[in-house]
Write a structure and sequence with these properties.
Elements lengths: L1 H16 L5 H19 L21 H15 L1 H12 L1 H6 L2 H5 L5 H35 L4 E3 L10 E3 L3 H30 L3 H19 L8 H5 L24 H28 L5
Antiparallel strand pairs: 1-2
Length: 289
């Protein structure tokens, strides 16, 4: 255990020293600014349908709502890119820099190194997710003011909007953010697996993002083209389980436990399979760089 902790500290130290590690935070900043511009210029037309329910649309617009909206969009627009970049750099990046061989001949086993890199990737990815939430909350509060959180998730649109008062919405963002980060680890695990197959981080990045977007497109094709059996086997089909965590704060309780645990199990299975295959390949890989 001490060896693992030492290896983890070393991996986190390397991440803090690499300029490329902070690109994700800059992308989150750029994304939040673009979201603010688009959010304001839309005049909130996407919420107009709620007026028939007797809800004043503009009363919902504030910092917490903007942060929630940014996270939901960013989960598929920018965060997978960060997950693929982080995971893809872990092994292939070392090989490209010529440091992988030196790293693996040290006393820590290859398994210990891979586990430490996995944990470091999750921590850094989780920081990116929480940074996006906090930054969007700050920008949204400055632009639209603070207040209660109005939760609106598109796939739960039939349930309408529910209100989460302060300080409960702070806890809800923390829980939802952790869930989103855990879901994105499936993308990072795929990238780490591919990074053990190649010495080029770019190949791992492109391969991961290609698989992610192909799966995303296939799951949205009509039933006449893609059957439910195939659709259920697509990784991205199950990544939105973290949306259910918003419903922990829905009045009367609305969390679909069956859906949540089923999708969580699928994501855990995919993540574990990608990770195990990557570890297996690394343990047998002839490292020359």
């Amino acid at each position: 255990m001490r060896t693992l902790v030492t290896a983890l500290r070393w991996e986190l130290f390397k991440l803090t020293r690499q300029r490329a590690s902070y690109v994700g935070f800059l992308l989150c900043l750029a994304f939040a600014v673009v979201m603010l511009i688009g959010f304001s210029s839309s005049h909130f037309r996407f919420l107009r349908g709620l007026e028939r329910l007797g809800i004043d649309v503009r009363s919902l617009i504030n910092g917490p709502f903007f942060a929630s909206f940014s996270l939901q969009i960013g989960f598929f627009a920018v965060l997978p890119l960060l997950a693929a970049t982080l995971g893809g750099n872990q092994i292939a990046g070392e090989a490209k820099d010529g440091t992988l061989r030196a790293l693996l001949v040290r006393p820590p086993s290859r398994t210990t190194v891979f586990v430490a890199k996995t944990i470091a990737t999750w921590i850094w990815l989780q920081l990116n997710v929480l940074f996006l939430i906090a930054l969007s909350l700050l920008i949204g509060t400055v632009a639209f003011g603070g207040g209660k959180l109005a939760v609106f998730v598109w796939e739960f649109r039939d349930s309408g909007v529910w209100i989460v008062a302060s300080p409960d919405w702070i806890l809800s963002f923390l829980v939802v953010g952790l869930g989103a980060g855990a879901s994105l680890m499936m993308v990072a695990a795929l990238a780490m697996m591919l990074s053990t197959f190649t010495d080029s981080p770019v190949v791992a990045h492109v391969g991961t993002l290609g698989a992610f977007f192909i799966s995303s497109v296939l799951q949205r094709l009509p039933e006449q083209l893609i059957g439910e059996t195939v659709r259920d086997a697509l990784p991205t089909r199950h990544m939105n389980y973290w949306h259910e965590l918003f419903r922990l704060w829905q009045p009367g309780g609305g969390l679909d436990a069956g859906r949540f645990w089923s999708d969580l199990a699928w994501c855990t299975g995919f993540t574990g399979a990608f990770w195990a295959l990557g570890l297996w390949w690394l343990s047998r890989k002839d490292v020359t760089s």
